[in-house]
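User: Predict the complex.
Assistant: Input components as received:
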Amino acid sequence: MSNNTTRHQIVEAADRLFYQRGYEHTSFADIADTVKISRGNFYYHFKSKDDILEAVIDLRLSNTKGMLNKWEAEADTPAERIKSYIRILLTNWNNIKQFGCPVGTLCTELAKLNHASQEEASAVFTVFRVWLRDQFTRTGHKKEADTLALRVLAWSQGVATMASTFQDEQFVRKEVERMCCWVESLTSDKE
Amino acid sequence: MSNNTTRHQIVEAADRLFYQRGYEHTSFADIADTVKISRGNFYYHFKSKDDILEAVIDLRLSNTKGMLNKWEAEADTPAERIKSYIRILLTNWNNIKQFGCPVGTLCTELAKLNHASQEEASAVFTVFRVWLRDQFTRTGHKKEADTLALRVLAWSQGVATMASTFQDEQFVRKEVERMCCWVESLTSDKE
DNA sequence: GTCTATACTGAGATAGAC
DNA sequence: GTCTATCTCAGTATAGAC
């Protein structure tokens, strides 16, 4: 599957715009301007805006899995892998301070719209959750692995929300540090 | 100032609907249906939708301050007061599981809309932050009071986001318990 | 102070030429 | 596959009667 098809360009532009402006606040005109196609052309590739959203979520699922695989390959220990996740808060800071977490903010928006794709959107969180659970299991915390995974997700969500509200990079740095220490302490505990 | 004026009814209905459906996704027709007035009548009381939003934020600011004063009066120790804040996650669970935190979700939405009232909305967070900082200061953590306040805000935000994504009440109960223990341990530390 | 009627705009979506 | 033209509808906002 080529990545230069018009369809793919639409999905990539929509992905970015849905993140930056929100799903509802992004119009076809916005996407059309970015991709430089006409509005009518959308309906050759998608049957509705909801359809584009589904494609965007699928893209995010696939990108997420790719990223997790990369971390799996690059880091040697489960603790290091979990820290890769935590550090997105810093590596992606320029986006997060403006638009928050792409996963959390989409789930929140779709919940308020009572949108049919709510569950699909939360599946992105589930991918992270399962992967983190796996990592915690391997550090010897099998029984509580899922709770710990949820805790990491919640922690980073909260930091992202407050960070974007107050634009406070120092707070993020401190919290990332604390989270990494916490992961480290959990690991050395049991090993 | 009477609370039965049409103006006040509009603001109260808008407050609820902005929370449940989001600001942008709430139309005048939605509010009009709730208050049972005609759409034209809005413009006697407000000059635009943005104007209603400002009034809603002012209402929230005032309601928040009222709630904090109540906690201040009802609880004897700073630690107990901080726990009052933490426990909103449970007392308001039925709303939170559906719509998330009213403060956080509004800030997030306005950030994506790049809306003029962004700062006004984040002022609601600041009211909580300053109050929590006060409480921590009184437990003897003056130097780190602000960081601890932000941490409580971030923690509860994260729990609210994950809880509404996965509809997981048990997770919320566990985290509220942990947060309360943490507050308790901070307090007994220094007293 | 509240209503009805209506103007105006931008959105999603469709039809059909090329 | 892509375009232009157009439809329909919902949204904000205005004008003016009562």
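The two ends of chain B are 44 Å apart (CA to CA).
Let me know if you want any component modeled separately.
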